[in-house]
Amino acid sequence: MSLVRPFDKLPTLNSAAILLVGTDESQQQQLAEAILKEKKTFKINIHVATSLPLPAERDHIRPRIDLIAFMINMQSKHSLRNVEASLSHMDANFFLGKVCFLITGVGRMNHCSVEMNAVRKLGNLYCSPVLFCELDSEGIRVATAQRLLRMLQICAGHMPGVSALFFSSVMKSSIDE
Amino acid sequence: MRRSGRPSLRRRQDMDTPDSGGMTPLGRKTAETGINFTSTTRFSRGLTFIRTHTLFGQSPTRRIIPQTSLLQENADPQKIAFLLRKQWTLYSVTPMYKFSYGNLKEYSRLLSAFVAAEKQKGLAVEVGNDLGIKVTLSTLLGLKGTDQDQVAILVQIASRSQLPFENAEDKVVWSGWFCCICGDDLLESVPEDFTCLSLFLANGAESYTAIVGSWFQKTFDCYFSRLTISPLNLAWMAAMWTGCKVDSHMAATELVFSVPCIPQSLDISYAIHPEDAKALWDTVQKTPGEVTQEEVNLFMDCLYSHFHRHFKIHLSATRLVKVSTSIASAHCDGNIKFLHSKHLIGVLTLLTELAISQIQ
């Protein structure tokens, strides 16, 4: 059982790795396929896991993780609890822009078991962007895949002059200013 | 990295969430998981409903259980008993324009004619033949939370008895009632001509509900929409109603969960002995008379973890669809059954709050 650390491995040339953590495996699979279908200029590794910590046995062959996306389904409280438990197994350096929360299932308000406050508090507490997406719908899945790909490019350092720390501006609301 | 020091919730101008399927804005049908993006800014429609504490999709963090939630003295016990132990379907109603309590007889007459006309549509019937339907509108006294609440209205459709006996009673085939309990905090500054009776409960044939609903919508320019209850609110109900003291025989607290499975969904029913449920709730609740979201979460988590320990099933990954206690029983499709007259006002307060939040 090891902590996932953002900077303890050397990056590989022209490639990036994303880790999707969530309880719904089929949804992760679909999102991963959508990401792979996108046009990109670098090699991408998509790792999926149901929870952290990741098993220690394969740690030496795992590449450096550039972005971790936690998937929470608003219709299942179990997914929220799972993500909350996983967050304690991460190195604090990850929260400098290399984590984001994907919230799905908000479209059907009558089936929501998780309250909105809890999700917003999570985003505020961990200083990470919260993206609402309905991963059941094809169009939104493609849009989310594009978004994640762009974020991954920035987190892996492929964009000169732009760093993952800039994602905090995504979380600001114009009403606050 | 700059971070605002205030931990309070922030308004967002627009959020990329699809339009919710459950909360339909007036007159508009929305797809369940469509790609419609709605702005969360309030749209004022002349009537300003001021919602000071909630944003999109939020439920309140704490609810006060009113201590003096007994029926008022002028309640008719027979009429109240009529409301109990029946399955009522819930609707939320927007404020009615120019509704007057003095004209109830007139409304009864008009509604009778309307119901008879609707029922006769498409049938070849002799002119002047009375179908034997009688509609009565009456007030339900005693169903008030605060003094500013409007008096509840009861609508009944009875079929006139065909028997020639003098004292043969009419058989009630459909009942519906409007009420609004403690709705003032949420409905501020409603103009003079509007009557706010936000909650409508119907029992009987669906066709009659549709006919009565369309008459009210045409006559008073209001809108009826089905009130569905989300699993979050059902969890609140389970927690709040378990905590109520019931002197007589207590029924078991039963929770029904729906597991999304292919091809058919699976239903799990979890029944808890009422004494145990109440004991658990008493250890969770800190301030008597007030319930917070954390307490509700803790109560439900305890039940889920107990179930998981025995059956290795995560109930938190399923959807709560029905809650049944000694006070009342509620289903997520918007059906409710009242079982106890003493706590009727408390349950109606919560339902009124849900109805008002749906129409805002």
Automatic annotation (TrEMBL), chain A:
The keyword RNA-binding does not apply. Pfam families: CENP-M. Keywords: Centromere, Chromosome, Nucleus. It is found in: Chromosome, Centromere; Nucleus. The keyword Signal does not apply. It comes from the Eukaryota. One of its GO terms (cellular component) is nucleus. InterPro entries: Centromere_Cenp-M, P-loop_NTPase. Signal peptide: none annotated. This is Centromere protein M. It comes from Platysternon megacephalum.
Automatic annotation (TrEMBL), chain B:
Its main location: nucleus. One of its GO terms (cellular component) is chromosome, centromeric region. Residues 1-10 have a biased composition (Basic residues). Residues 1-35 are annotated as: Disordered. It holds the Pfam family CENP-L. It is found in: Chromosome, Centromere; Nucleus. The keyword Nucleus applies. This is Centromere protein L. It comes from Platysternon megacephalum (big-headed turtle).
